[in-house]
Structures are given as C-alpha cells and as structure tokens.
Amino acid sequence: MNILLINNYCVPEIGASSHLYYSLGKELASRGNNVFYLTGIPRYNIDKLQYEKYLKSEKFFVEELEKMKVIRIKLPYVDRHKFIRRGIEHFEIAYKMYKYPRKFIENLKIDVSLVYSPPLTLYWTAKKIKEIAKVPFILNVQDLFPQASIDLGVLKNPILVNFFRKIEESAYDSANLITVHSTKNKKFVEKVCKNLQKVVVVENWIDENEIMPDEKINDFSRKYNIADKFVVSFAGTLGVSQDIEVILKAAKEIEKHENIVFLIVGDGIKKEDSLKMAREMKLKNVVFLPMQPKEVYPQILHSSDVSLATLAKEVKTPTVPSKILSIMSAGLPVIATMSLNGDAPDLIKIAECGYVFEAGDYKHLAETILLLYKNESLRRQLGKNGRKYIENYLSVKSAADKYEELFLELMKKSNKTI
C-alpha cells in the first residue's frame, strides 16, 4: 500500500506523537508498504540552533528515514509559553502542510492516510488531500480537544469554545474512520460523532525492541552518580497537564531516606515553577535534568527502580500517558496519580504492573515508593508483568496489524486496489 502518515512532529523531535508515528511508520515500511510521512521541520524539544539549520531549505523537501519518505514542511518555531500564537500556529500548520507539497502528493498515488490529532486542525490537511487525490483518511484522536483544554482552564472564552466545537464536529464528519486509544475515549468521541460505526479503538503502542529491560549500571547512571541509589524517575514534558507538585510533596515525605533519589527529566512551561517549589521546600533528594535525546531515554528508565506517571486533577479526559507504555516496556513498576475514571488506571490494574492513586495523593505515592524500596522481589514481578503485557498486546507489530486491516477496509470501500 501507499500510506501517508500526517503528524505535526517527527524524530529527531522528542515527544509521544513523534515516537508513536515513527515506530508505526518503520513497522509498516518493513512490511513492504510505501510509507510517506508528512510533517514539519524539527522544532519541538530540540535546540533552536538545530531548527535554524533547516531554515535554509525550500518550503518543503523529502528525506529518507528507515525506508520511509519524510516530507518536511518549513514551519515557524513558536515559544511554548505563547498560547495565542500557538493557537494561530495550528491553523498555519494545517494550511502549509497541504499547500506546499500539494502537487508532489497528488503524484504519489496515495491509497490511504492516517492523521494524528492534536492539533485537530490537521484533519483539514487530510480532508483537502482526500478531495484532490481521492484518498480516504483515518483521524487518530489522541487528545480530546477542545474538552481537555476546557478542563485545564486553558480555553475559557465561550465564543472560542463554540468555534472549536464546530471544528471538532467537522473533523469527525469528514473522516472516513476515527481511531481512539481507549474505550472511554471512544465514548467521548461518540458524543460528538454522528456516525458511531466510524469510531474504532486501536490502543497505543510501543516498539518493544527499542525499550527493553536492561542493566541499571550504564553510561547515564554513572554520569549522574545514581547507580547506587534507589531512583524514582519522571521523564517527559513538564506542562499544565502533568502534576510535578505531587512528586515534590512525596519526596518531602520520605526525604530522611537518603538512598532514595527523585529524578525529574524534561522541560516545559511548568519547569520553572517546579524548580522554584523544590527550592522553597529545600529538597535535597530531587534532581532536575533537561530533556534528553531520544537515544538516552531508555537509559533513564534502565537507571530507575520505579517510574512515575502523574496527571493534574483537572485532567478529566481518559488519557493514557505514553510514558506508562515506556515504563512497562522497560520492565519497571509504574506508580501513577491521576483521575481514577480513565483508562490508564484500568491498564495498570489489568497488566498488574504497578499502583495508581487519585490525582494529588502524595501520601499514598510516598508510601508505595517505600513499599517498593523495601521489596525487590515485588518490584521485579510488577516489572515482568508490565513487559509481558506489552509484548502480548501493545507492541508496534500489533498496532501495524490493526491499521493494515483498517487501511484495506477503507481501500475496498473506496474501490482502490493494491
């Protein structure tokens, strides 16, 4: 098949969406499919100097990565703190990702496309490609926008809320199929989508060969002198959705245990606030590090004894943080604090890979860290359970199987042949 993946991000950018689609694209290409990946030039979680190297390029260019043809569009570098500019950017991205490579894409004879949301506006890019090249598309809804932004208090203006609700309806109406990563997300989408038969659950995935269990003593643990410590890690974006305060409060609860170190790796708009809070609490058992390159991330997990997934209480949509899958794949226990009404708590319980508590519950978080600190056999068993669940149900191979089946179904309905 000739498959077009559409995503705002792609490696070398560090983030859940770029890693998710990159691993899927690699797997689909390894099966003999022609995979084209429409994205922007690197600009998220990378050094600005690296971004500026791409500014010398044309409006779009094509490079080959892992047997995929990556179509990169020249896009602006927008400060993450500028919410209004980022909102405008979402429309700019959608327009340029269609306009710049339009003629090139028309000649590719694409069979089907898969578009990542957010940003939700990218549905428009897929819709226009559908119109000019008769390409059916699947909208892969990862974050429930605008609902998630409403819950977080980022989107308050009723006029804007109504405006984005209309875009959401249009996106769901124009897609040939909609995939969501959990059953409770499916119920949310079905409240908006008029055709319930369109909505299909395809759980998120991970390349289980990229993140595997490994030795605690490695270049990363030696570099930061944590090889002989009990390491509790949190790695990822430090944004409005993530609850770093609950980690700091838990660290304060058990600060007398000098062998326990909390390692927070990442950047984001809440990092400065988190650093300030740690200073005010006079925490000596917390280490902050900047976002690390993609190839270093597995070593962060290998250096850890347990890893955390924490969401703010305002996050009410049933998200499953991608870091949970990474932790499970590395064979580590997961401890999570988040709304108990989502699918992530169900996943942790079904996989028997860790513990989950209500958002903000630092007392239970601290108690459970101590429990695992004192019980190595329990840590090992939880880690083994998580790894086994990934291999059996959430590997990139399983996801590729499901998407190939959906692609063929859409092609049949569109009278396309291989």
Structure notes:
- With 418 residues, this protein is an alpha/beta fold.
- The chain has 17 helices and 14 strands.
- The chain has helices spanning 16-30, 48-54, 83-99, 102-106, 122-133, 147-152, 158-174, 183-190, 219-223, 245-253, 271-280, 297-302, 322-329, 343-351, 362-374, 376-393, 396-413, and strands spanning 2-6, 34-40, 60-65, 68-73, 112-117, 137-141, 177-180, 199-201, 230-235, 260-265, 286-289, 306-310, 334-337, 354-357.
- Strands 3-4-2-1-5-6-7-8 form an 8-stranded mixed β-sheet, with helices on both faces. A 6-stranded parallel β-sheet has the order 11-10-9-12-13-14, with helices on both faces.
- Strand 12, helix 13 and strand 13 (334-337) form a beta-alpha-beta unit.
- Helix 3 packs parallel to helix 5 and helix 10 (245-253) packs across helix 15.
Could you outline the blueprint of secondary structure elements for this entry?
Layout: E1 2-6, H1 16-30, E2 34-40, H2 48-54, E3 60-65, E4 68-73, H3 83-99, H4 102-106, E5 112-117, H5 122-133, E6 137-141, H6 147-152, H7 158-174, E7 177-180, H8 183-190, E8 199-201, H9 219-223, E9 230-235, H10 245-253, E10 260-265, H11 271-280, E11 286-289, H12 297-302, E12 306-310, H13 322-329, E13 334-337, H14 343-351, E14 354-357, H15 362-374, H16 376-393, H17 396-413
User: Which quaternary structure do these chains form?
Assistant: single chain
Q: Count of helices?
A: 17
Return the structural class.
alpha/beta
| Anisotropy-based shape | globular
- Rg calc: 21 Å
- How much of the sequence is in beta strands? 15-25%
Main β-sheet description: 8 strands, mixed
Give average pLDDT, whole number. Answer: 92
